[in-house]
Design a protein that fits this description.
The protein has 448 residues and is α/β, with parallel strands linked by helices. The protein is built from 13 helices and 16 strands. The strands form three sheets. The chain has a nine-stranded mixed beta sheet with strand order 11-10-9-8-12-6-13-16-15, sandwiched between helices. The longest helix has 14 residues.
């Protein structure tokens, strides 16, 4: 049977549905499923919070007898293996659906193609690849962890009209307006972890949580690249570490156990798994990217050129206002411990506050990212600062760039952005532009 506009319409609805639980299904993908009969949706569901039950059995149960002879639209190939629940392919067969339309084939070697074969062997018509590009985008975190053994990495930057991302020595500076900041909060809520460098953590003293009412519980794990354990004990991150997990990535040189340079970090917490019910059947992928060598597909170093001109598309410069809720005075401390005794004291105080410390060269993301993936982290948001952004860009480990451009002017004491809309690295495709108040968001994705 050929694909029809109706098929694409129902699949688009299933993809929209799937996005509702992004970041909330542990290591399982957030999948959407619609059961349609005679052009009417008789059942619909999304992977449940924590990853179980899967979308298909929920949608089938809602449809009941109406599922017999119906068409199922599923954003990811139905599973064919026994985990903690029976295979979804078996459920579709048992309910008597006549046709299954799939957006993306599952790369998990336990499933890939087998779910489709089970359905076809039972006489069910199967069409795959419907709105595949859109489906892959909604499943990007899961697919990246399965195929590359690392999280899907989004780099978010907010750049002023004169090419700056902040002002030296002043902590957080609000570059974008409230509409854009609300969109960033939504992005945090659907992301497993958020990462900043120690410079940003000290100068801005950020919370890095989700502050949108009703979504606070969806705050991501907070990760700081902190080679010398310089994060102030008075910082907001330390103060809230027992509420929302904080991981400090420290140098192996200060490890009490003397970890070797380049060894994968240990002790990363299963935060999402503990909170939502980690499914052991969705273990770490079998293929890896861990390597001491530079990724052969890495990007060329980002140019360090000056930026001039109004990147806010002609908008007039506006005064910079404080970022409400995250503009306290700078946290006390912030210097590395002077000797081993001070280091032990600092380490003990951080751990007593609930901070997790792992020892892995903070400037080897090609080692850190696979280690995060083995703990079920499928998506990572890199938010600051300029050095950290360059680190991930030059390692070739950024999958998506979200570039906010605002009409504000920072001035001569600004911190220069590692990139702007005129020098996006090669290998990225422009996916579209959205406007939030006076701000412009351009989104770029790495081309396959």
């Amino acid at each position: 049977m050929s694909i029809t506009p109706h098929d694409e319409s129902f699949m688009a609805a299933a993809i929209r549905l799937s996005r509702r639980h992004l970041g909330r299904t542990a290591t399982n993908p957030s999948v959407g499923c619609l059961i349609v009969k005679d052009g009417v949706i008789v059942g619909q569901a999304i992977t449940a919070l924590g990853g179980r039950p899967h979308a298909e059995p929920q949608a089938l149960a809602e449809a009941g007898e109406a599922a017999r002879g119906a068409t199922a639209y599923v954003t990811l190939e139905p599973c064919s293996h026994h985990g903690k629940t029976p295979p979804c392919a078996e459920a579709l067969i048992a309910y008597g659906v006549a046709r299954v339309v799939i957006s993306v084939t599952d790369p998990d070697p336990r499933v890939s193609g087998r779910g489709i074969s089970m359905l076809r062997d039972s006489g069910i018509e199967v069409d795959a690849g419907v709105l595949e590009a859109e489906g892959r985008r909604s499943l990007a975190g899961y697919l990246t962890r399965q195929t590359k053994s690392r999280p899907y990495v989004t780099l978010k930057l907010a750049v002023s009209a004169d090419g700056m991302i902040g002002r030296a020595g002043e902590g957080q500076v609000a570059i974008t307006g409230p509409e854009a900041r609300a969109e960033v909060q939504a992005l945090r809520a659907e992301t497993d972890a958020i990462l900043v460098g120690i410079g940003t953590a000290i100068s801005d003293d950020p919370l890095l949580t989700v502050r949108t009412p009703g979504l606070e519980a969806q705050s991501p794990i907070r990760i700081v690249l902190d080679p010398s354990l310089a994060l102030p004990l008075t910082s907001k991150l330390v103060a809230t570490a027992r509420e929302v997990p904080v991981i400090l990535v420290a140098s192996e040189e200060i490890s009490p156990s003397g970890s070797e340079e380049g060894s994968p970090p240990s002790g990363l917490p299963d935060y999402r798994g503990r909170a939502t019910g980690l499914d052991p059947s969705f273990g770490p992928p079998t293929r890896g990217e861990i390597s001491k060598e530079r990724d052969p597909n890495s990007l060329a170093p980002v140019s360090n050129k000056s930026t001039s001109g109004n990147v806010g598309q002609g908008a007039s410069p506006q005064p910079i206002s404080p970022l409400v809720g995250e503009m306290p005075g700078r946290a006390e401390g912030g210097t590395a411990p002077a000797d081993a005794t001070d280091m032990d004291s600092r380490r003990a105080a951080l751990e007593a506050a609930g901070v997790e410390i792992v020892y892995c060269n903070p400037y080897h993301p090609e080692i850190l990212l696979p280690a995060l993936a083995t703990r079920g982290i499928s998506s990572l948001l890199v938010e600051g600062g300029a050095k950290t952004a360059r680190l991930f860009l030059e390692a070739g480990l950024v999958d998506r760039i979200q570039l906010y451009q605002a009409p504000v002017i920072i001035g001569a004491d600004g911190i220069e952005s590692p990139l702007d809309a005129t020098d996006i690295p090669s290998g990225f495709a422009h996916m579209g532009t959205r406007i939030f108040g006076a701000d412009r968001l351009d989104e770029y994705e790495r081309e396959s």
